[in-house]
Amino acid sequence: MRAHLGDQLVIESPATGVTRRDGEIVGLHHADGTPPYDVRWSDTDEVTLVFPGPDAHIRRFEHGRPGTSHEISRQYTGEAETADTASQPTGTSNPGDVGRHMAVERRRQKLSRGETARRARMSPGYLAYLEERPADPTVGTLIRLADALGVPVTALRGGGIDLPPGQGHALLHPQLSDLGPEECRTFLSTHGVGRIAVTASDGRPAVVPVNYEVVDDAIMFRTAPDSVTAAAVGTDVAFEVDHVDEALSQGWSVLAVGQASVVTEPDAVRRLSERAHSRPWAGGRREMWVSIRPTSLTGRRITPADH
Predict the structure, then answer these.
(1) Residue 45, beta-bridge partner list
(2) Residue-wise over 7-32: b if at least 16 C-beta within 10 A, else e?
């Protein structure tokens, strides 16, 4: 018996041929694909070490990748990478949509494959396979990966990009709870994109998304002197960040209120520019750093009632 990562192990009744149990092979222990295997069972979602008996067989997954089974197995049973710049498996890389979105998000968060695999409770070799080869992982696998990366499942599938979040079904028994100050700071410190509410120069209210950083508990973002968000300077503003998990119908939001001011000290501006996690998505010359030091920080979270 020989298998590849992603194949299905099926155990049938010897008498009737009816499937009694099946699971996805997520770990190999031998380069030639022979047993034992790490199997994630479809009925319990648990991973166990399996030595298949005579009532078991392999259901092949269409891997769509070149090379012999020995070459492929050898590529994906190595040690986990310790840094994002670690060497990639040999051979032609042809990732599918899920793999591309997964790798981009992992690298954006500066996570190694080993750490991501640990969070998702899967073998680093299987994660490498998912990132680099066309694959169709199970819903359970996608949910674990999305949870490990802190993104909705749709983000890994590349779907729903032009749709607003929150169109899924609500939880049967949702629980809305307040976040404490430290929890708010933790969620806020993830940086990324937040929304600032300001009164524009024409006197009308406006809410604008901005790329932001958190430095010493202060919210920092870049803008242009003639932009809508520049009108925030010298006024009290509201700044909001949130996260919605479409797959689990859960989410959180954090609201910071404080006065906005311009960062003028040259060394501080230089440090902010050098250490920023990303440049403003809107592009253009946005070199004016605005700081919001919250005087009020509140948040809420939606979870299942039994959590």
Answers:
(1) none
(2) bbbbbeeeeeeeeeebbbbbbbeebe
CA nearest to 117, candidates 85, 94, 158, 149: 149
pLDDT exceeds 90 at position 178: yes
Distance (Å, whole) CA 194 – CA 182: 18
Other beta carbons within 10 Å of 53 = 9
Peptide bond into 36 cis (omega under 30): yes
**Is residue 207 scored above 80 in pLDDT?**
yes
Residues paired with residue 176 on neighbouring β-strands, in sequence order: 302
Q: Give percent of the chain with pLDDT exceeding 70.
A: 80
The confidence score (pLDDT) of residue 134 equals 76
Q: What is the pLDDT of residue 70?
A: 35
Buried-state track 228-251, b at ≥16 Cβ within 10 A, e below 16 = bbbbbbeeebbbbbbbbbbbbbbb
Angular region, 144: left φ>0, alpha ψ -120 to 50, beta rest: alpha
Residue carrying the six token digits 């976040």: 179
The runs of H, that is alpha helices, within the chain are 69-75, 97-108, 113-120, 124-132, 139-149, 153-157, 181-188, 266-275
Q: How far apart are CA 289 and CA 230, in angstroms?
A: 9
CA 15 to chain CA centroid, Å, is 45
Read off the pLDDT of each residue in 16-35 and give the average, rounded to a whole number: 79
Helix (H) or strand (E) holding 294: strand 288-304
What is the distance between the alpha carbons of residues 39 and 6, in angstroms, rounded to a whole number?
Answer: 10
Contact of 65 with 91, CB cutoff 8 Å: yes
**What is the rounded CA–CA span in Å between residue 194 and residue 207?**
10
Compute CA distances 292 → 22, 90, 214, whole Å. 54, 48, 9
Gap between the Cα atoms of 256 and 208, Å rounded: 15
The pTM score is 0.52
Distances (CA, A) of 11 to 1, 28, 272: 13, 18, 57
- The rounded radius of gyration (Å) of the Cα atoms in the chain is 24
